[in-house]
Amino acid sequence: MKIRTVLRLAWQGLAGLWRTRFLGTAAFTTIVLALMVMGIFLVFLANLSHLAQGLEERVQLRVFLADGLSPEAMAKVGEQIRTLPEVERATFVSRSEALERLKRQFAGREEVFELVEENPLPDSYVVQPAPGTDWAKLSRALEQIEGVERATYGEEIVRRALLFLRMTTAATLAAAAFLAVAITFIIMNVIRLTVYARRREIEIMRLVGASDSYIHFPFLCEGFFLGFCGALLAALGVDRAYLWLSEQMSRSIPFLPLLGRDAFWLQAMSALIGLGALMGVVGSYLSVKRFLRA
Amino acid sequence: MIQFHKVSKVYPNGALALLKVDLHIPPVDFVFLVGPSGAGKSTLMKLIIRQELPSEGQVVVNGKNVARLRKSEIPLLRRKVGVIFQDFKLLPDRTVWENVAFALEVAEVSPREIRKRVPAILQLVGLEHKASALPGELSGGEQQRVSLARAVVHNPLVLLADEPTGNLDPATSLEIMELLERINLRGTTVVMATHNREIVDRMKKRVVALEGGRVVRDEQKGRYGR
Ligand SMILES: Nc1ncnc2c1ncn2[C@@H]1O[C@H](COP(=O)(O)OP(=O)(O)O)[C@@H](O)[C@H]1O
Ligand SMILES: [Mg+2]
């Protein structure tokens, strides 16, 4: 389509929203509320993944090597680790790399390291066990290897907590997907009304030789605006709600900090608005397609 | 221009609309389709613009089997085949000018070209002075002329008219017939379905009679009945 046509049809879509006074209807309110719940899910997911990241670092299975091994000997230990069937991956972390990582974790408080003259950390392997592995058993097996000093994997409770976080994440994602389908469905029904209101025009368009994309386009724009505006309002709502919630939480349960609004906020809110717009377009596409086929 | 090869049409509900129809309409022909209601006249036209697909046989328009057209080619076919109906099918909230321009807009004709072609076609149907009127402010005959203008603004190869005078009084009907004849003389093939005996008998054109979905008569310079 030519640019001029695209603009004209987009304008028609906007006019369609106005004509049906859409932005004031109950259906639109429902869409905004559902999108707000969606936004809360997204923010919740971001927090979960942040929490999980913190924990993950504490539940690595680390295999510490004995002091004074030659590089060849270290490599040989690595080979032996990798031959175990429960081991999916094993990455070598030299003692100097380990120190670098530690320093990064203490960023801003480097004075701690001034007390240490020599690097006290051993060389090690970070092992990724296959899913379903019994970590305790595996670490005992690893300790049998010649040249291995010790194998540790942090506290069991932390590992459980991480597992729980992962399950919660999966459940939230499933709920968000379900919600996305529901919102798309609402938008589909809303657009169906405006398609129906213009059915005469559509019939004539087809008779005089309008292409399907020409017929679709204004409705796609309408759906887009609908999803976009809905998500924008929802984002504002979620923003206010989150601000309030973090204040409450930092007062009453300060040990469980929510992410600051600046860290990921723009991403989460653009994701919400993008999703809203996408659902609008998909919903109206399905709606018009169904109508044209009938 | 239009060929039907052993075309049958059965609707999904089982209604038989056309049965083994063979028909050949050469370019610039003027054909009346007659027959009782339910004989299959409208169905025959719907097959030509690919609003329906034949259940059997082939419909060839301008050298192309319409069933084999790609999705993107269907709009192009419809720009080559104009249609008018008994109920005009105008948009009530748009002016005469806008209703005619509509057909050009959907084909993405430039505004400059539209400003040139709409007045010319309105003049052809004698409505240049009603350009800014709404359909509701026009008589039936005038509305049909607007719909005719919209149908031929693309300079189609074929014009299909499905009972175009069904809602008009005899005098107005004759005006429409004059216009159809004029359009035919400009080189457009015209196919018109009608119940109007008087018109068919007066025009002395080719007559194809349908009954129960079959072609029961096809004669040059024919009459409505035997
Ligand atoms: N969309 C449709 N679905 C089912 N049956 C139809 C449809 N259109 C027409 N018919 C049937 O097909 C037959 C022919 O109809 P039609 O082509 O409209 O005849 P005419 O225009 O000569 O009156 C009739 O029996 C009619 O009931
Ligand atoms: Mg009919």
Structure notes:
- By secondary structure, chain A is α+β, with helices and mostly antiparallel strands.
- Chain A has 10 helices and 4 strands; from the N terminus they run H-H-E-H-E-H-H-E-H-E-H-H-H-H.
- Chain A is elongated.
- Chain B has one domain: Rossmann fold (3-Layer(aba) Sandwich).
- Helix content of chain B is 33%, strand content 26%.
- The site of adenosine-5'-diphosphate (ADP) has 12 residues of chain B, from helix 1.
- The site of magnesium ion has 3 residues of chain B, from helix 1.
Structural class estimated from helices and strands of chain B = alpha/beta
Which oligomeric state applies?
Answer: heterodimer
Helix tally of chain A equals: 10
Strand order of the largest sheet of chain B: 6-7-8-3-9-10
The general outline of chain B is globular
Number of strands of chain A: 4
- The overall pLDDT average of chain A reads 84
- The average pLDDT value of chain B, as a whole number, equals 94
Overall form of chain A: elongated
Give the SSE layout.
The complex is a heterodimer of chains A (294) and B (226).
Chain A: H1 3-19, H2 26-56, E1 61-65, H3 71-83, E2 87-93, H4 95-105, H5 111-114, E3 124-129, H6 135-143, E4 148-152, H7 156-197, H8 199-207, H9 212-252, H10 261-293
Antiparallel strand pairs in A: 1-3, 1-4, 2-3
Chain B: E1 2-10, E2 16-25, E3 30-34, H1 41-48, E4 56-61, E5 64-65, H2 74-80, E6 81-85, H3 96-105, H4 111-124, H5 140-152, E7 158-162, H6 170-185, E8 189-193, H7 197-203, E9 206-211, E10 214-219
Parallel strand pairs in B: 3-8, 3-9, 6-7, 7-8
Antiparallel strand pairs in B: 1-2, 1-4, 4-5, 9-10
Bound molecules: adenosine-5'-diphosphate and magnesium ion.
Magnesium ion binds next to helix 1 of chain B.
Could you write a compact summary of the structure shown?
With 294 residues, chain A is α+β, with helices and mostly antiparallel strands.
